[in-house]
Amino acid sequence: MQINGLWYSTVPPDDPVIVGAPVVSLRAGDPLNLTCHADNAKPAASIIWIRNGQVLNGAMFSKTLLRDERRESTVSSLYLSASNIETGQQITCRASNKALPNGKDAIVTIDIQHLPLVNLSVEPQPILEGNLVKFHCSAKANPPVIHYRWAKGGSVIRQVSGDTYEVIVDHSFFTEPVSCEVTNALGSTNISRNVDVYYGPRMAAEPQSLQVDQGSDAIFNCAWTGNPSLTIVWMKRGSGVVGIVITIILFIVLVFPVAYCARPINS
């Protein structure tokens, strides 16, 4: 290049280099710090950062004069907050100077890693006791899933290792939640859910006979379980319905054996 009758040599920069390229991995929620350097240029290279065709502002620059006191190296650092990056995005570092006005590019791909994101579904619905039910544990993970673990009521189901658990359900699934734990290289995510199993009335405690004095109150308790919720109907043998409650109090006016029974009905 000639200036005022004198010739000055210009040297294009070496190919720019992004530290960590071609793929930079970081955990979800962490900010991104990129560094790009373009060496051996005269004059010193200018560096810009580009994403989706748009120049990114806010980068920091430094220049270092090399031993020959002619060429220079340029280093640029770019900071992006976690909310300003997405996995799979490509960011370009472009270095140029007078000897290379169109510039040279280096490209890095962003890889955001995260714990498994898990959803636990149950089919079919509604769930009836005695029916075959499929639990499916769908997960999105980066790095990929390496292990599934199933449990019921806190007890590991060792015979199942994949993303699907098939079983004939009984009433115990109503009170013992099913859980799926999904693991990748970063750690594990556990999700559980109670199963709304429909089942008929079951006696929770045997009824107890009472001996009471004439003129005293007799208190009868009834303990049944069922889903949907139960309506408890008290009946006096030979008479019919005497109450629709869980506990019934009767005033005894005659002293002789009388049988009362509680009949549960699914609502």
TrEMBL record:
Entry's Gene Ontology molecular function annotations: cell adhesion molecule binding
Subcellular location: Membrane
Pfam families in alphabetical order: C2-set_2, I-set
Transmembrane segments: 240-262
GO cellular component: cell-cell junction; plasma membrane
Key words of the record: Disulfide bond, Glycoprotein, Immunoglobulin domain, Membrane, Transmembrane, Transmembrane helix
CDD domains: IgI_2_KIRREL3-like
Name under which the protein is recorded: Ig-like domain-containing protein
Species per Swiss-Prot/TrEMBL record: Oncorhynchus mykiss (Rainbow trout)
Lineage: Eukaryota, Metazoa, Chordata, Craniata, Vertebrata
